[in-house]
Every structure is written in structure tokens, then in C-alpha cells.
Design a protein that fits this description.
single chain; mainly alpha; 6 helices; 0% strand; elongated
């Protein structure tokens, strides 16, 4: 994976983190104080991009740690006797076939984006609920917004988690098969 791909991946993940942080801040403090016209000016975009990138790094690491702790060992056991054996096969592919390594990295990029967005979307749901409770007037409007946003975001979280799980299983399957194939070619 080249540096540009990794940068874009972390920006994509960081956008979600930026959304929930902004929603949470606006939910708690309101939005009358925010100079929206200045925020969208070109000089403001570079610092916003830098913050988004940093949020992407932190979110990716947090999601990686969470998913490894909760789900990874159950998934890897479907293909490997012990957790960590997949690293040896992955290393072998990276050393022996640049093309297969590129294909693996493309899949892993999508996997990381889904994983990061599961965490982001969960936090967006919480932040949006805080925003609705504190900033939206009218009980019927609040209830309607809660119902629609929570249903939509819960379905999105499940879809992202399911995609992550399927991409992870496909990744382990490809690593196992491609490594075995490369070893058989020698």
C-alpha cells in the first residue's frame, strides 16, 4: 500500500470521527457561537484536514484494538490453529508476490474503513442523540428524529460490521490459500 492510499484511508475514517466530535460539541454547547462562514473558507480547510487525519489515526487504532479484543480470535481460528500464524503467511506473500500483496492490501483497506466506521457510526449515533436532546425543540420533533436517525444508524452499524466480518474472513481465506499456492510454486 502506498502512502497516498494510507493517507486517504485515514482521512475517510477521520471524517466520521470529525462528524461525531462536532455533533457532540454542538450538542453540548449549541451552535450560535460557531463562525460557519469562516470555517468553510480555504485557510480553515488545511487545519480541519490535519485534525481529520489525526482523528483518523486515533479512531483506526481504537477500532483495531476493540475488534481484535472482541472478534478477531474467533474469526482467525476458522483458518489457523493459533492466532498469529496468519502473520507468517502474510509475510511470505509480501516477500514473494508484489501483485498478491497489493490485492491483499486493497481488501485490508476496505476492512479498516468498515471497522473504523463501525466505531464512528456508533459514536455519531450517541452524539446525534445528545444533539437532538439538547438542541432540537419540540417533543414530537425529537421523537421523530430519534426514531429515524437511530433506526438508520443502527442498520448502518450492522451493515458496516457485517461487511467488516465478511472482508476479514475473505482476507484470512486469501492469505491461507495464496501463501499455500506460492509455497507450492517453489
Amino acid at each position: 500500500m502506498n502512502t497516498t492510499d494510507l493517507f486517504v484511508e485515514l482521512i475517510v475514517i477521520g471524517v466520521g470521527a470529525t462528524i461525531w466530535v462536532v455533533l457532540l460539541v454542538l450538542g453540548i454547547f449549541g451552535y450560535g457561537w460557531v463562525p460557519f462562514d469562516h470555517l468553510l473558507a480555504l485557510p480553515s480547510l488545511l487545519p480541519i484536514l490535519a485534525i481529520t487525519y489525526i482523528f483518523g489515526i486515533v479512531t483506526d487504532r481504537a477500532a483495531d484494538s476493540l475488534f481484535d479484543t472482541v472478534w478477531k480470535s474467533k474469526l482467525v481460528q476458522q483458518f489457523y490453529v493459533k492466532d498469529g500464524d496468519d502473520y507468517d503467511d502474510r509475510r511470505y506473500i509480501y516477500l514473494r508476490s508484489e501483485r498478491l500483496a497489493s490485492l491483499l492490501e486493497y481488501g485490508r483497506s476496505r476492512l479498516r474503513i468498515c471497522r473504523g466506521w463501525v466505531l464512528n457510526t456508533t459514536l455519531i449515533l450517541i452524539s446525534l442523540d445528545v444533539f437532538i436532546l439538547r438542541q432540537v425543540s419540540g417533543v414530537s420533533t425529537q421523537i421523530a428524529m430519534f426514531l429515524f436517525s437511530n433506526l438508520f444508524l443502527i442498520l448502518l452499524i450492522y451493515g458496516l460490521w457485517f461487511s467488516w466480518k465478511q472482508l476479514t474472513l475473505a482476507d484470512y481465506r486469501k492469505v491461507k490459500r495464496q501463501s499455500a499456492w506460492l509455497k507450492s510454486q517453489q
